[in-house]
Structure formats: structure tokens, C-alpha cells
Amino acid sequence: MLDQQLTPRRIALPLLASFHILIIASSNYLVQIPFQLFSVTITWGTFTFPLVYLATDMTVRLYGAHLARRIVAVVMAPALLLSYGVSVLFKDGSYMGMASLLVFNGVVARIAFASFSAYVIGQLTDVLVFNRLRRSPHWWLAPAASSIFGNLIDSISFFSIAFYRSTDAFMAEHWLSIGIADYGYKVLVCVVLILPAYGVLLNLLTRHLTHRNP
């Protein structure tokens, strides 16, 4: 089998889980740094978080859906703690000091829980869709469809849980429109950047395995 020619599962699991945690931590910081793109305000986290979908799709393709789901299970608790910790330590991209961790922040806790929920639901959706389409003769179909549906569920989960009837009046009023814009840019990033990267990686791995096993 293909996965027998790759890194053993017992090694792949911690490596891939660590990559997920790294992307989640960096995205929770970068999501606090907004900028304007075509008159729409987005954050740098829009560009980093889709890398998780790239990692998940490659995992399903090479190792199967079971390992991909195990990675989500392993990452769940660290993702929740990291989402809260990073959001408390860094406000609007500025370091607030370790003392900020000593005071519980209910607003941040809600956002962290939203991030945690969106990650779990979005990733499991991604695995389900990709696994159903992985045997398609068109290499791009599975990663494209799984990213579109996974990011949709991710965005709906995050913005509704984090900001529906929030104490933040602006976000409580505009969470839906901001969420739609965020989803649109995530899909754009996936199509323009992540999907080509997936194709390149898949091609490189296929060539590598072909040369190893002529």
C-alpha cells in the first residue's frame, strides 16, 4: 500500500498533529492583524489557516481517513488551549504580558471555543468529503470540494458561535457579512494557492515513490 512506502503512521501522527497546532497558533495571532484588500477588511489569518486543509487532504490521500480523524482528535484539546492563550496574550497583535493569563476573559473564551468548534467540525467535514472523492480520476476534485465545504462549515461555525448576540455590538450586527467575506477569501486562497500547492506536492510524492519502486 502507498502509506507503507511513506513515513510510518506512528511518526506521521505526531508530526502532522504538530503542524496543525503550529498553524492554529499562528492563525490565532495573525487573525488579529487586519488589512484592506479590494476595499474589504480581512486578516492575515485568512491566508495561513487554509494550510490545515492542505495537510489534512494530503493525509487522507496518502494515509487514509482514519489517521486524519485521529489527528483531529489529538489536536482538539491543544487547539482550544492555544486559541485562548494566544488571544489573551496578544491583543490586536500586541503582546499583553503573561499576567493577562491570570485573569479569565469571557469574551476571548467564547471566541476560543468558537475557533475550537470550527476546527473540529470543519476538519471532519473536509475528511468526509475528500475521502468520498479521493478515487476520482480528476486529482483536483477532492481537494477543491473538501476545501469549499470544509471552509463553509468552518466559517459558519466560528462566526455564529463567536459573535451571535455578542457583547461586541459591532460584531453582533455585522458577523454574518464579515463571515461571508471571510469565507469568500478563504475559498479564493484555496483555489489560487492551496490547490496548486496540493497538485505540486502530489506530483512530487508520486515521482519519488515511482523512482523508489520502479
UniProtKB/TrEMBL annotation:
Output the superkingdom of the source species.
Bacteria
Membrane topology, record value: Multi-pass membrane protein
Recall the GO molecular function terms of this protein's record: transmembrane transporter activity
Localized where?
Cell inner membrane
Spell out the GO cellular component terms annotated for this protein, sorted alphabetically and separated by semicolons: plasma membrane
Ordered alphabetically, the record's keywords are: Cell inner membrane, Cell membrane, Membrane, Transmembrane, Transmembrane helix, Transport
Membrane-crossing ranges are 12-31, 37-55, 67-90, 96-120, 140-163, 183-205
The Swiss-Prot or TrEMBL record describes its family as follows:
Belongs to the vitamin uptake transporter (VUT/ECF) (TC 2.A.88) family. Q precursor transporter subfamily.
Under the heading PANTHER family, the entry gives: QUEUOSINE PRECURSOR TRANSPORTER, QUEUOSINE PRECURSOR TRANSPORTER-RELATED
UniProt function note:
Involved in the import of queuosine (Q) precursors, required for Q precursor salvage.
HAMAP family found in the cross-reference section: Q_prec_transport
The record's section on NCBIfam families has: PRK11212.1, queuosine precursor transporter
Write the protein's name. Answer: Probable queuosine precursor transporter
